[in-house]
């Protein structure tokens, strides 16, 4: 493997349009992008593409395994923001190494968003 940068994170939901709107509120720095040739909208957050896709029989929405953790400058502020847009605290907050904290927030479809800072 030559490049180890995360390119995209797929989030499976039952309502893509509603989830795009929610994630834009959750990540106000996100830039909405559109691939016309594929009729596909996604959010760009720095160098990571956040791709909201339909859940199906192969991949349901909800907490089921891997969780992506976003590094935040102000942990308490980030948690408060996520809760203010309709996220719910799922796990934590926990104290971790070097004076940092971490937690998981669930989106309205049950997916977990990790925060670390």
Mean pLDDT: 94
The portion of residues assigned to helices is: 10-25%
Structural class: alpha/beta
Number of β-strand runs: 8
- The gross shape turns out to be globular
Largest sheet: 4 strands, mixed
Q: Show unreliable segments.
A: none
Q: Walk across the major sheet and give the strand order.
A: 1-4-3-2
Span between N and C termini?
28 Å
Radius of gyration (Å): 14 Å
The fraction of residues assigned to DSSP E strands is: 35-45%
Number of helices: 2
Q: Provide the succession of SSEs.
A: EHEEEEHEEE
Characterize this entry briefly.
This is VOC family protein. InterPro entries: Glyas_Bleomycin-R_OHBP_Dase, Glyas_Fos-R_dOase_dom, VOC_core. The chain is of the alpha/beta class.
Describe what you observe in this structure.
It comes from Pseudochrobactrum kiredjianiae. There is one protein chain. 18% of the residues lie in helices and 39% in strands. It is built from two helices and eight strands. The chain has helices at residues 16-26, 75-84, and strands spanning 8-13, 31-35, 40-45, 48-54, 69-71, 88-95, 101-106, 112-116. Strands 1-4-3-2 form a four-stranded mixed β-sheet, with helices on one face. A four-stranded mixed β-sheet has the order 5-8-7-6, covered by helices on one side. The longest helix has 11 residues, at 16-26.
List keywords for this structure.
4-stranded mixed sheet; alpha/beta; Glyas_Fos-R_dOase_dom; 117 residues; globular; VOC family protein
Helix-strand layout with pairing:
Layout: E1 8-13, H1 16-26, E2 31-35, E3 40-45, E4 48-54, E5 69-71, H2 75-84, E6 88-95, E7 101-106, E8 112-116
Parallel strand pairs: 1-4, 5-8
Antiparallel strand pairs: 2-3, 3-4, 6-7, 7-8
């Amino acid at each position: 493997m030559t490049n180890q940068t995360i390119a995209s994170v797929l989030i499976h939901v039952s309502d893509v349009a509603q989830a795009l709107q929610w994630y834009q509120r959750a990540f106000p720095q996100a830039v909405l992008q559109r691939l016309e040739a594929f009729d596909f909208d996604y959010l760009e957050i720095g160098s990571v593409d956040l791709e909201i896709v339909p859940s199906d029989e192969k991949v349901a929405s909800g907490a089921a395994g891997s969780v992506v953790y976003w590094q935040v400058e102000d942990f308490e502020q980030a948690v408060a923001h996520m809760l203010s847009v309709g996220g719910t605290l799922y796990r934590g907050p926990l104290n971790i190494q070097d004076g940092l904290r971490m937690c998981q927030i669930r989106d309205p479809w049950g997916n977990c968003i990790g925060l670390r800072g």
